[in-house]
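Morning F.,

Quick status update on the modeling queue. The single chain you submitted on Monday has been processed. Sequence for confirmation:
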Amino acid sequence: MNQPADLPPIIRDEAHLQDLLSLPTPAAISAVSQRDGDFIVLGAGGKMGPSLSRMIRRALDELGRRTRVIAVSRFASPASQVAFTDHGIETLRADLLDQQQLDALPDVPNVIYMAGMKFGSTGQEALTWAMNAFLPGMICQKYRHRRIVAFSTGNIYGLSPVARGGSIESDPLNPAGDYAMSCVGRERIFEHFSRTLGVPLSLIRLNYAVEMRYGVLNDLATRVLRGEAIDLAMGHANVIWQGDANAMAIASFSQAATPPFVVNVAGPELLSVRSVATRFGELLSESPVFTGEESTTALLSNGQLAHRLYGPPRVPLERLIQWTADWVKRGGASLGKPTHFESRDGKF
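Structure tokens below.
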């Protein structure tokens, strides 16, 4: 799996998908090997949490360590916990905004913070700010002096010239809309408590993780197959295999520092929406329908720092496209959550 030649031609089913998504890289295993004690994943019930938690478990198993991995989420139903418990991951149900429930969580040395609110943020701005900017302070108070990897987003950079090739970590932030602004708030709160409480932190600016059931590529393939119009105004994007994003986030434990270490997690390719949709048209025997024209700006991140530190992504864009086309054509499962990556006003 570490070389393109090792990649399967198709992803058979969801079990096969989860196996691939949770396969740790050498960099992730190395980072885990350097950390003593248990791991806790806060907000683990989302799109990435199950496979990320399992990747930590697999890395620990490879190292011969029975250290605990604990997944924390509201877990809407007991069945949603099966994806964790079946693979040796402990689960705890908690509303992280409830101080008593947060206080009751185990105090472990290695924390991954995945909680947040994006979709549905328009119309629920107060809750969005509470989740994205207030909760990080609560987490830092709870896990003071512990090591935290916290997910953020490349949306905080705002639109940048396509010709520039994507924002880098030192660029000024120019967020649009309550979601992106609240995510800047999240980073500022984490930085404040990192500095004042001595919390080693790494901030993962992700843009955008994809797998077969969700993401920019699934959105585009589905629209092509259905004959739905594809808006070209956001004509470019970054994508990265979710398994690679998981691995880079885990590997960043090694760089966590005070003030926080910041890193973009994004694919190396500057994805052209028109070109990718056209490629899906070839693979799906459908003609894509386009509307509008490409803008000279887009939400783009430069992921070269992460690639230098943790190695390049294992799954190249063309293989991701082939996997997604096959999956969608066969009627594979979908999470039913469009990304709205084409939004240029920051409303989600």
